[in-house]
């Protein structure tokens, strides 16, 4: 059973420039969450990687988008590794990412997950720098929030690691640490894995126990002050875990109950420059999970309008002359909306406002 349920009310996604959500209360506030409450993968946020390339690590699986390799059921994301002949490979599994849809800079990233077990299994929850295409790996940076390589005496240990560039003489800078359960293995039950990331450090916790810290404020670590996207996958075989053997049982399940992002008001949430070609600095703010939303601008706002997809005005907040105003979203039915903000005689119109 999940230890926290969030009612999904309010607007799902808002693209804004020069505006931000007000995050009040404690230093960290929940700003985005994937609860896997539906019956299929939310492709507004996630996309499948379909290939048999081996992940750059000589992995043995073919990643597919088939339900037999990934299913969302009873509030759980199940990534399923199978032993089967498929397009020249002996194993299948799934890998998904948020590239170009949800790009993060800083925050507390938390997931509740249950691992597979056995020789050759390699579940991972990680992030890759959004500059991957332009800079390549490892110069783009990689944040491995959690990896586990299965097998006898290894199913009780997870790793958190950072990788960065440059690549020199067949190697690159990296730093990692591990955490071993006091008893049992990670396949016995769900565990909460959490990474805290800001402009000074990256720290990783397992069930509240800090086991990894790295200072990223120094020279050469600039990659970790840029945007990153999330990746979840279950690999089979590869350079690190080695191949499955006669003791490995299939199918194997990598289960994720939720993924949640917490941030402070001064943290940049997410960018999607691909979505707003006219303004590469546009920012997309996920649902704050409430029936109201506070908009803060750098210039005094005169008026805020919410329009439906046909252009009909649903709500108007006028005579504001303020840099901050709270709007209500609970009266809107499901659908796509436009948020229009007027200030100093100019209009700014957002896109893809979805409830």
Describe the 3D structure:
The structure is a single chain. The chain is mostly beta strands. The chain folds into two domains: 1-22 and 267-355, Immunoglobulin-like (Sandwich); 27-263, Sandwich (Jelly Rolls). Helix content is 1%, strand content 48%. The protein is built from one helix and 26 strands. It has one helix spanning 132-135, and strands spanning 13-16, 19-21, 29-34, 47-48, 61-63, 70-73, 76-86, 89-93, 95-97, 103-104, 107-114, 121-129, 142-147, 157-163, 174-180, 191-197, 201-206, 209-215, 228-236, 252-263, 283-286, 292-308, 313-328, 336-343, 346-349, 353-354. Strands 3, 5, 6, 7, 8, 11, 16, 17, 18 and 20 form a ten-stranded mixed beta sheet that branches. Strands 4, 9, 10, 12, 13, 14, 15 and 19 form an eight-stranded antiparallel beta sheet that branches. Strand 6 (70-73) and strand 7 (76-86) form a beta hairpin. The longest helix is centred in the middle third of the chain and has 4 residues, at 132-135. The protein is globular. The two termini are 26 Å apart. Residues 1-26 and 269-290 have low confidence and may be disordered.
Topology:
Elements: E1 13-16, E2 19-21, E3 29-34, E4 47-48, E5 61-63, E6 70-73, E7 76-86, E8 89-93, E9 95-97, E10 103-104, E11 107-114, E12 121-129, H1 132-135, E13 142-147, E14 157-163, E15 174-180, E16 191-197, E17 201-206, E18 209-215, E19 228-236, E20 252-263, E21 283-286, E22 292-308, E23 313-328, E24 336-343, E25 346-349, E26 353-354
Parallel strand pairs: 5-8
Antiparallel strand pairs: 1-21, 2-22, 3-20, 4-9, 6-7, 7-8, 7-20, 9-19, 10-19, 11-16, 11-20, 12-13, 12-19, 13-14, 14-15, 16-17, 17-18, 22-23, 22-24, 24-25, 24-26
């Amino acid at each position: 059973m999940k230890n926290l349920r969030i009612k999904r009310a309010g607007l799902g996604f808002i693209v804004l420039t020069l505006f931000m959500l007000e995050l009040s209360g404690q230093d960290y506030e929940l700003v985005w969450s994937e609860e896997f409450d539906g019956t299929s993968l939310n492709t507004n946020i996630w996309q499948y990687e379909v290939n048999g390339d081996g992940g750059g690590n000589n992995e043995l699986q073919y990643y597919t988008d088939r339900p037999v390799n990934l299913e969302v059921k009873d509030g759980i994301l199940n990534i399923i590794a199978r032993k089967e002949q498929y397009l020249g490979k002996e194993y299948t599994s799934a890998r998904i990412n948020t590239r170009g849809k949800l790009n993060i800079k800083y925050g507390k990233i938390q997931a509740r997950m249950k691992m597979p077990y056995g020789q050759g299994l390699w579940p991972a929850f990680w992030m890759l720098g959004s500059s991957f295409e332009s800079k390549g790996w490892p110069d783009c940076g990689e944040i491995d929030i959690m990896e586990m390589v299965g097998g006898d005496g290894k199913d009780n240990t997870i790793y958190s690691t950072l990788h960065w560039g440059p690549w020199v003489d067949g190697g690159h800078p990296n730093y990692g640490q591990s955490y071993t359960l006091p008893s049992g293995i990670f396949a016995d039950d769900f565990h909460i894995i959490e990474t805290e990331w800001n402009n000074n450090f990256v720290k990783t916790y397992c069930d509240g126990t800090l086991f990894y810290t790295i200072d990223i404020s120094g020279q050469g670590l600039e990659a970790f002050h840029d945007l990153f996207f999330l990746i979840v996958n279950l690999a089979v075989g590869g350079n690190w875990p080695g191949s499955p053997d006669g003791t490995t049982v299939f199918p194997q399940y990598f289960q994720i109950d939720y993924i949640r992002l917490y941030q402070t008001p001064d943290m940049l949430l997410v960018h999607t420059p691909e979505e707003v070609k006219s303004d590469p600095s546009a920012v997309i703010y996920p649902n704050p999970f409430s029936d109201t939303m506070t908009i803060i601008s750098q210039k005094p706002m005169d008026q805020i309008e919410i329009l439906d997809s046909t252009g009909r005005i649903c709500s108007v907040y006028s005579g504001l002359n303020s840099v901050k105003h709270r709007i209500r979203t609970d009266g809107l039915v499901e659908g796509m909306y436009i948020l229009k903000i007027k200030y100093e005689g100019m209009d700014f119109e957002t896109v893809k406002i979805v409830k």
